[in-house]
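Recap from last week: sequence in, structure out.
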Amino acid sequence: MEHQPFTRHREAALALLHRATGLSRKAGGFLGQCVVDPSPMTPKQAAWMANLLVQEGLPPLADEQVQ
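Predicted structure tokens:
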């Protein structure tokens, strides 16, 4: 069964914080900011989030508005 993409970066960040082991302090801070800040991510932030999701075997982000 294939999982649906995350529709908001907040849910993706929460899933990563819950599941990921061995996150760097920088990655943890980034994900925490994604949880509390609803503004769109920059392309660089979206790429970082996408990479973290792939590393943890989680679904990707759905097409999301990026600044």
